[in-house]
Task: structure prediction
Amino acid sequence: MRLDPISLRLFIAVMEEQAIARAALREHIATSAASRRLAELELQLNVQLFERSNRGITPTPAAYTLLGLARNVLGEIDGIARQMREYGSGMRGHVRMVANISAITQFLPVQLQGFMAKHPEVQVHLQEKISTEIALAVAQNTADFGILNAGRYGGDLSYLPYRRDELILIAPHGHPLTLLEQVSMRQALEYDFVGAHAGSVINATLTRSAAQLDMPLRLRIQVTSYDALCLMVAAGLGVGILPRQSAALYAGTLGITAVRLDEPWAQRQLVLCLRSLEALPPVARALVEHLIAPPDPVGASEAPGPLQ
Result:
């Protein structure tokens, strides 16, 4: 049996797009050629991968099993090609990385700038995702590694300590809570909240905390970014929760005040997750080692600073 990587890539595209025509467009081949390749793949494997009807295609259980196997095989093939290129021409290549918004806004800009200044031939493809999606992307080999909040995500993944951050409360200037040095969630839940996007760790934390206190969480509005959250808080639509260093980016230009949270969950651990450090291409492994190195004590990005 000779499995064709092109057919496997096409099969993955069909599974992700849920349509042969869209997958063919994505893979830059004719729809008829794509249908023929899928039929030949089924013949080679002696199994039906799709049920076909006038309404389109429906993957069979065998297709879902093959999806994981195909991603792993193509990941290994891509890894061979990347590593050989890197050995032949020095530190160069492409790194696929996913991270949550906390890491992206607080730590990664300076770290990536330092790494890419040393290795100008390296390309880093960074995507923002929520923590559950990050773990899934790494497990499915659609990313080399990811940075997310510490937690239980399942799958055969390894975790390395990355950085610690602190959640704080922000409120409009003059809000009653800004008169306090620190605030508890019991005090904060007396007011409307501006929430983060659905599925975010911060929203889940707020919901859990409100349930434990047997108090309602009044989410007046939800937004998809920290800058939008700060703008809504500054407009008086509610108070919000976000990482301290992310809030500091906007505190100087918007009418918001940050207040320390008197809650144990306000101190968080961010971790780097991967399938295996040894299996990473050299360029990805070098970036991981750069990211998890202890920060420079002089002007370290995670050093505590004053709340404004």
